Amino acid sequence: MSVERAEILVDLAAVRHNVRRLAEVTATPVMVVVKADAYGHGMVACARAAREAGAAWLGVSSLREAEQLRAAGDTGRILAWLTVPGEDWTPAVAAGVDVTAYTRADLDAVGAAVAAAGVPARLQLKVDTGLSRGGAALADWPDLVAAARAGEADGRWRVTGIWSHLACADEPEHPANAAQEAAFRHALAVAEAAGLEPEVRHLANSAGALLRPSARFDLVRCGLASYGLDPAPGHLDPALGLRPAMTVQARLAMVKPLGAGEAVSYGHTWRASSATTVGLVPVGYAEGIPRAAGNRAEVEVGGVRAPIRGVVCMDQFVVDLGAAGAGSATAPGDRVVLIGPAPAPSAQEWAEACGTISYEIVTRLGGRFARHHIDEPDEPDELDEPDGEETTA
Ligand SMILES: *Cc1c(COP(=O)(O)O)cnc(C)c1O
């Protein structure tokens, strides 16, 4: 198999499979979250795959990301949810993006965009039910709702959605889940009493969608699970069958023997206790390989695991080919798989080695990696899978 110097391969059929599985298992329309370049998987290509698999909505953080999706030809519903004061909401409003207000100041900004764009906005309201991140505090909610209703009554916008975000969805037994859901139901009641009739009420991210059926409401916002990664390690039924979409691979730049007692990389944090063979992998923290992976994570070379030795540098790191017996069979130019199907490590294994979550591992990958999308036709049985009423998990 020909491998570039260093590349990220993204399997769009896997993205489609995952999006279909999420819709089946949750029996709820899915918003595929494609923010942050689709968690490092490529926003435009993944958005297209998500739509092909039936995604009713796409979700992004910034207005700019939503505008990029429109510029790439996406005409479906898109929600954007994080702005700063002074931002111009006009292009997003003009492009029919659903925008999110947290405050009355946001409503003023949307009103200005409506005047400039000459079309009413699609507006969603976010309430903070306990994450203490974005969204209106419950104390400010009645006021925001009243102002939003007034703007709807005079034709500035239509309030299309009301939503919130969970803090502890990956810990299904955490009491915050029930507390946030109750607060959300209360906020919805306040909004409805004020005359709002949102099309979509939504609360759940991937983990909430899969683990908490009562949090699904009208729409589930799935990011990580759409890319085939596990949003709640240890809690999901493997029968869910999500397929990781990303493979990360490179070619060994160099292979050389190392004598007993010789040390590797900056700071000499690892020293060979016996003679071995090391290989040089031509990517580093500039490509998003965590520096913390030094002496902790592994890669696959020739079907066996090779541990990283010494610290990860900006452009490169060193792996121990002797440790697993891969050394003698290995030559410069051989393929090294950083993340991929077994026996290669998963993004989750990298996360555990580095003390983080798989979200951070995949999202940060970039730099000088080439990225290629593989798009093969779906298996015939993908297309006629029955609409499940399964509620997992
Ligand atoms: C990123 C994000 C999501 C997606 O979360 P996952 O855990 O990746 O499914 C959903 N909603 C909001 C508001 C987000 O910021």
From TrEMBL:
Modified residues (N6-(pyridoxal phosphate)lysine): K35
UniProt binding sites for substrate: R133, M314
Pathway: Amino-acid biosynthesis; D-alanine biosynthesis; D-alanine from L-alanine: step 1/1
Composition bias type Acidic residues, residue spans: 376-393
Catalytic activity: L-alanine = D-alanine
Highest taxon of source: Bacteria
Span of domain Alanine racemase C-terminal: 245-374
Pfam families xrefs: Ala_racemase_C, Ala_racemase_N
Family listed: Belongs to the alanine racemase family.
Protein name: Alanine racemase
Source organism of this protein record: Nocardioides fonticola
